[in-house]
Write a structure and sequence with these properties.
By secondary structure, this protein is of the alpha/beta class. The protein contains 15 helices and eleven strands. The protein is 38% helix and 13% strand. An eleven-stranded mixed β-sheet has the order 1-3-2-4-6-5-10-11-9-7-8, with helices on both faces. Strand 7, helix 8 and strand 8 form a beta-alpha-beta unit. Helix 9 packs across helix 11. The longest helix is centred in the C-terminal third of the chain and has 21 residues.
């Protein structure tokens, strides 16, 4: 049986090999992984709650398939963490909010169903910023997540819990969500791989909505192949999500053939202005690795980048104010007990239930959608979004991929930016553009600062070119790029 000390280093391939060689059963691995995660979780608060009954049941299904000589699936027996904005039938799904502290969904998200059909074993639900709103995972109603690389620092947000679980080794892979960088920034801060697929590549059915036109579900892994394998398992058309794409899903892992020589890579000049040297130097070294692999690197321009922050925070807050209107205390949320009238109940429930960041975004969104301001703000932001998407379309006529930083800086200390939400918003400049354009993008580790903090390099490709993105990232990883 696998020793507890080996669990944090397991990959999908090693789990499958261990099962095939009968070194352990899926149930044995699930029990050890649960015990290890529960013991380690107090250090980081990466998990909000565990689901041992569901995990053991899933593991037994894998063992039964193996006993019958059937293919148990590409994720057979693999311990997985799922961000708590993705609903799980019979398992609490809180979205990091007091409003949903006791919400037990009656159905599974499509991504969860597909994950388990592929043999995955969900250990539990991972912590996150409330309703996925934040860049540090300090906005959770159930306490912040601590970065396993440095427990005094944030793991990034909003998917800080899934990223920390993979980095800590309490999950082999994890599912997160990304609206403006909520997978890639935590991946960068924690030194793991994080992928935001093309909008529509993965069904959003069962994802508790923040901003519906920007939300994505995507994978975390400790290497590119694991992230690619998880994405393939959950991707594809879903009749329950009208925005999910009809595009066929390639075998991502089979396409990791190292064929990147001649790949044209663009470096947008707008993304390297004012970049801190400790981050910029590592990304530059990462680009040198790509050059040694035979990639052709050239400078490009994405001219509307400077307008991205304003457009993004108008669009996402407008959609958030609409989506979060459903949490009113009438149906399945926390309800304030101290209310004399229906309007008091609405007001008190939302006042007591939502945290400060959610209230801030709801108020901003309500304002930009209000009569007299809709055209001046929301409509104009959508026009800017189109210009940003056009920038990428034009760039991809010249290059195959775009490489940028993920964040202007590495993980910052807990509490350091809490009192300055505008500075937190501005830090998303490198990640929000990919979401506005709906293109696939990912963070891959490209070394550590002198203080030992991980830094990620972002790779972006055209719509549905996840294969090209993964191939470049995998070649970079194998060439030693992850170590900087």
């Amino acid at each position: 049986m696998t020793a507890p000390t080996e669990i944090p280093a397991l990959t999908i391939a090693q789990v499958r090999e261990g099962l095939a060689k009968r070194h352990f059963s899926a149930e044995e691995l699930a029990r050890e992984a649960l015990a290890f995660a529960e013991a380690e979780n107090p250090k980081t608060n990466a998990y909000l709650h565990f689901s041992p009954e569901r995990a053991i049941a899933a593991a037994r299904r894998v063992d039964e398939k193996l006993a019958r000589g059937e293919d148990p699936g590409p994720l057979a027996g693999v311990p997985v963490a799922v961000k708590d904005v993705i609903v799980t039938q019979g398992v609490r799904s809180t979205a990091g909010s007091k409003l949903l502290a006791n919400y037990i969904p009656p159905y599974d998200a499509t991504a969860v169903i597909r994950l388990e059909q592929a043999g995955g074993v969900i250990l539990g639900k991972a912590n996150c910023d409330e309703f996925a709103m934040g860049s540090s995972n300090e906005n959770s109603a159930f306490g912040p997540v601590r970065n396993p690389v440095d427990l005094e620092r944030v793991p990034g947000g909003s998917s800080g819990g899934p990223a920390a679980a993979v980095a800590q080794g309490t999950a082999v892979v994890a599912l997160g969500s990304d609206t403006g960088g909520s997978i890639r920034q935590p991946a960068s801060f924690c030194g793991v791989v994080g992928v935001t697929p093309t909008y529509g590549r993965v069904s959003r059915y069962g994802l508790i909505a923040f901003a519906s036109s920007l939300d994505h579900i995507g994978p975390f892994g400790r290497n590119v192949r694991d992230a690619a394998t998880l994405l393939q398992a959950i991707a594809g058309r879903d009749e329950l999500d009208s925005t999910s794409a009809f595009a066929p899903v390639p075998d991502y892992a089979a396409l990791l053939n190292g064929a990147v020589r001649g790949t044209k890579i663009g470096l947008p000049r707008e993304y390297f202005k004012g970049l801190a040297s400790e981050t910029g130097d590592l990304v530059t070294r990462g680009v040198e690795v790509l050059k040694r692999l035979g990639c052709e690197v050239r400078e490009i321009s994405l001219p509307h980048t400077d307008y991205a922050i304003g457009a993004y925070y108008i669009i996402c807050t407008a959609e958030a104010s609409s989506n979060l209107a459903r949490f009113d205390g009438v149906r399945y949320t926390f309800r304030s007990a101290d209310s004399a009238t229906l309007s008091d109940m609405y007001r008190n429930t939302r006042g007591e239930g939502f945290g400060a960041e959610c209230k801030r975004r709801i108020m901003l969104g309500t304002y930009v959608l209000s009569a007299g301001y809709y055209d001046a703000y929301y409509l104009k932001a959508q026009k800017v979004r189109h210009l940003i998407a056009r920038d990428f379309s034009e760039a991809f006529r010249e290059v195959d991929a775009i490489v940028t930083p993920v964040s202007p800086f590495p993980a910052f200390k807990l509490g350091e930016k809490l009192d300055d939400p505008l500075a937190m918003y501005l830090s998303d400049i490198y990640t929000i553009t990919g979401d506005l354009a709906g293109i696939p993008c990912m963070s891959v580790p490209c070394g550590k600062t002198a203080g030992g903090l991980p830094v990620g390099m972002q790779i972006l490709t055209k719509h549905f070119d996840e294969p090209g993105m993964f191939r470049l990232a995998d070649a970079f990883e194998k060439a030693g790029g992850f170590g900087g």
